[in-house]
Amino acid sequence: MRREDLLLAATSVNPGLDRAAHLRIDLAALAAYPSKTLDVARGGVRTQGEILYFSEASPDLDAVIFLGLDSDGVAYFAQSGEGDFTSLREAVSQFPAFERLIAAHAVALMNWHESHPHCPRCGSPTVMSSAGNARLCEKDQRELYPRTDSAVIVLVKDSDDRILLGRQASWPVGRYSTFAGFVEPGESFESAVEREVREECGIVSEQINYLGSQPWPFPASIMVAFEAIAKDPSQALADGVEIERVEWFSRAQFKEATDSGRLVLPPSISIARRMIEGWYGEVLTGGEAWR
Description:
CATH class of the largest domain: Alpha Beta
Number of strands: 17
Low-confidence stretches: 1-12
Organism: freshwater metagenome
Oligomer: single chain
Mean pLDDT: 90
Pfam families: NUDIX, Zn_ribbon_NUD
Radius of gyration: 21 Å
Protein name: NAD(+) diphosphatase
Number of domains: 2
Shape: elongated
Structural class: alpha+beta
EC number: 3.6.1.22
Cofactor: Mg(2+); Zn(2+)
CATH architecture of the largest domain: Alpha-Beta Complex
Number of helices: 6
């Protein structure tokens, strides 16, 4: 699978936005750049048709989040807004690649700011600092930085190139997906893959390969994608807690299940969908479910 096949994954080493960290502490220099500002609220973004809507008015640098510079030297910002917004989940699949990255970056940072109004050490109020890329405790001047929760997402395969998908009881009827879970403290990505696959579907992995990654700001995660090759496919068994059912699919079985509507796919925005499409060999259409 190619990384450019993942909707929110970086399409190259340089995704088109230089985060320009040196400007976060030099507001005078930052003010000299032409700017575009995106309104963000409640996990949504302001749009105009099928693209993001940016204000080109000079921003209040004490109240906005600096995201970075594009290749033309335009500074991008995010700010808390009011009014009607389009959910990032609903809108991101329509955006050009650069706008997807801008939107994910903006929503992730705004989510963090909204959930950290107080210092976790002393409980005092915090204020934005570093052009919105940190917060400062008003009492002891301790600087707080955004955190991203790492999760692994895994496409399980066997030696016959079948894939194993699972479903949760809370999902809509027919919805199946890949396996995923958060990385625990002191755990490598590879160890998390092995553990999650073994816990959720009973499979011992004999080979683990990295596929790509996707920012997932719902509210503050990054999905790190792998494929895991099953040592013994016959051991597949749902844990009965998180996963209620697992099923192996060849490409022919997968096509029959999706064509008939028996199998409902993960949403097109998700890395899970792109992993499945990468295995299948083409972009898939048809029903999909969010939950």
